[in-house]
Structures are given as C-alpha cells and as structure tokens.
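#onboarding

Welcome to the new folks! Below is a worked example of what a typical request in this channel looks like: someone posts a single protein sequence, and someone else replies with the predicted structure as tokens. Don't worry about understanding the tokens yet, we'll cover that in week two.

Example request:
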Amino acid sequence: MNVLERWTVDFYDFHSPPPNTEALGISAFGDLHSRATRNGARHGTPVILSPSGRPDSRLNLFFRQDRMATSQPGTWRRYAYTLVVWLDFLDAIGTAWDRATVHDVEAFKDWRITDGRNTERVRPASFDTDRAGLNSFYGWANSRFGITNPVATVRADDEATTRAYGRGRRDPLRPAGSTSRQVKWLMRDALAQWRDIGLRGYGFDGLRRAGRRVGGFNEDRDAAFVDGLYGTGLRLREWASVLDVELPGSGGERMGTAWLAAKCVKGGREGRTYWIPRQVLRSVEGYLDPLEGSRAEVISRAQREGRYDRLSGVRIVTGHEPRARRLRVVTADGPEAVALDELAPDDRRLLFRRTPQGLEPLWVWLSVNGLPKKPHSWEDTFDAANRRVAEAWLRKTDPGGRLGEEQRKQVRRECPLWVTPHMCRHSFALKWFSILSLLEERRLEGFSPDEIEVFRDQLGDIWLQLAVLLGHRHPDTTREYYLEPFTGLQVSYLMALLDDDERSGVDTLVRIFARHGGSVLGPVVAAGASR
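Example response:
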C-alpha cells in the first residue's frame, strides 16, 4: 500500500540528535548516524524514497560513490531534486527509471517546458540543469550497473557522436531557449523595485500596502541579504556563509575590504579578498543592531526556548584573531586555534559564543527560529518574493478583478520583473564593467593602439580586473560567461546602471585623470608600471 503520493528526498543532518530507535521499534539498527556513516553517508547526503516509502539502494548509492561522494551539498541537492521530478514523471507514464528511453527523456523535456497541463513549467535554462543532472546520473548507472543512458547528449570527446551529429551541432536535448551563457542582469532601479515589492510589501505604484509587512521582523534581513549579493558579487552560498567577525565596519570608505574563506569559495581551493559597499555594510549593521535589528530578537527567543542548547556538535568560540584569520575554540583538550579558511558552511553553522544571556551564533543570517539559515533556503526566499511580485503585477494589470483564473495565471507567468540570486552576481559584473569601461576610456584617451596595448600588458585590461572582483581564476571565464553580450554598449548607457554613490566615485576618479592631462598616465601609474 502506498504511504506517499510521490517520490521524496531528505538529507542527512548529523548536527541534529539521531532518532530514538527504541521508540520507533527499530533498536536493532543501533545508532542511525553511525550506521549511515558506515554506509558512506555524510552530512547533507540525500536519501530518496519511493511512493511506497522504501529507498532504491541503487539511486542512493549514486550520491555515495566516485565523484559524487566528494561533491558539495549544494550539488547533491540539485541532482537529488532533479531525480525526484524525473522519477515522478516516469511513474506518471508507467516507466521505471532503469528502463527509460530517449523518447521518455524527450517527453520529459516537453512536459517540463511547454506542456500546458504542467502548472510548474520551467524556463529552458532550468531544464538544462535537469539534463546535465540526468546525464551524470545515467552515466554513472551505466558504468556501475550496465543501465542504458537515455539522455541524448553530444559529447565533444566522442568521435562517433560528433560524426553522427556533425561538428558544431547543438546538443539534441538542449532546449532551443537555452544557450551556453544564460546571463540575466538587472538595472539597480529594477532590483530596488523587486526588493521593495517582493520583500517589503510595496506595490508597482510605489506605495506600501496598508496593514502589510511582508517580511515581518525579518524584512531587514532579507533586504540586507539581497543588497549584499548585488553589492559584493558573491555567489549565494558564499554570502550566506559569512560570520559576523568577518565583516568590516562601515567607516568613511566607500568600500570595506573582507576575506572570503577558502572552504566557502566555489571549488574550495583558496580564499580571496572581496569588497562590500558602505551602503551594504550599513544595511547589514541595521539587521545586526542589538536594539533595533531583527537578528537580536530571534536570538533572544531561541535562547529563551533553549534551541541552541539542544544542538549537536556546537563549538564554543572564545576569541578571534583578525590578522591571522583564526578563531579560538574550546575543545575537550583545551583551547585550540582554528583557521577560518578551513571552516566550511556546515562547520560555521555550529560556531557559537557564550554571552550573559546564553549562546549566540556567529553565523550572520538567521532563520525565524533563531537557527542559522541554510544557504539553499535562500532560494525559497527568492521564490516567495517572485510570487509576491507576480501578484502585485496581476493587481496592476487587472485592478478590477475581471480576468478568469487561466488568464490570471498567464498574467502572473508573464510578469516582467523577477530575480534569482545569480542574477545579482551578473548585475554586479555588468555594473563594474560600466565603471571600468568609463575609467579606461578616459585613461587611454589620446593613446595610439600600440601604446594602449603596452598599457594593458602592464596593468591588465577590464576583463582581468573583473576576474579579480568576481573571484575567477582566469579572465576568459569572465569574458565568456558574463559580459561578452554587453561589450558593444555605450559607456553613457552603462553609466545609467550606477547609483548616485557609485557615480560620484567614478566622477572623482575621472577628475583625477583629467588633472593629469588625459593622455598622460601620471606618476602613480608610472610608479606602478616600473616595479
């Protein structure tokens, strides 16, 4: 008998106390956390269950072997949810996953993107993620169990496939609306409008709806988080994992300097410097304010209810060494210095300090229950805000409520304003492309092509500087995936993307260059070039 309606996925949480096996009548299994660890599970490893409530050991083995076993929890989540949606689709058409065909995958593509009966259709770029996830899973299942891979994918290193499809042919399963560079970006005013409507309860008329406070006491948190993504250019997981001791103060400088720990960076190889605009720091400080910010309120409530005391694996921090980028942590053997670069997001969520009121997390972004907000849960915050914006668009489009339900759904789907976390990073990149383009235009005015080439060899071109800002290892990544479509835009148009504070900073730099005669590098640049 079915106990579930659909396939489901859960994730191992080794930071919470394990279930009481005696109360569940399964005491023979022993400690479930220890058993799961012996079976290859780590914190965050997915467990997929069928509608019967039973796991398919082959599916779950995928996340515990080979390359996937060492992947990050975010990768596990994306692949697990892709598999669950795929498995539900196969159940609906009466096919098992180990007997799926190319035609089943093509039907899945149509259902995900275009089938009007599917109320949760996705954009082509989202299906591109599904396609990659399924291809990875079936590639593993083929090598492990001999199961045919039904995902029709053109591989550059597959000579036979290249001959069959022709060099340069598009992957047959890649949606027509999907390209290798799915870049979406926002003007600053558009992001502010989305934030005000989706997170703060305003309408498209600029007025706040009476009696509505969308974000509740977390409104300051959500607004500060979104401003930070746009202002720093960090990835969602990176910005979501910062500790309060890692944030600089909002002094007189326009940009504060901070360090992004290695274990929080994509790839986790080495940390890097990043910069936080003064306005963002002030917004975050408002959220952190012990008297007026919402963070203090949720911490106080969690302390009163003993939530922090019940957490498993908590580490008590007694000090911070900013220059060495280390924390002093209490252990069973006494105090120990721990490098911030070595602390992954899951480790950071367990860092607390003792205060007269009780334990307090170092993790900046907290959920309504006072516990550290998991990075992936910010996707839900963005989704909820997008739904509110779509509802506001419907109220603007159909103020009299005359449209039928199907028409209302269509209006919501066609809402022209929506945001994803990574769009903030794209927009950050375009903003700085604007700034650097203007500076380079003024700095190189009057130089010959040969002189410009020498200048760029010495100081680096725009793409190199953007790669530093975005944390890319090579400027080609920045050029190929972020800003190539915008290189032909006029600087005057790009300047319209900047806010007043940013434009003021650019104008100041331009005046400095102007004082040096425009076509003369000046002593600062000359000194830098001679080193």
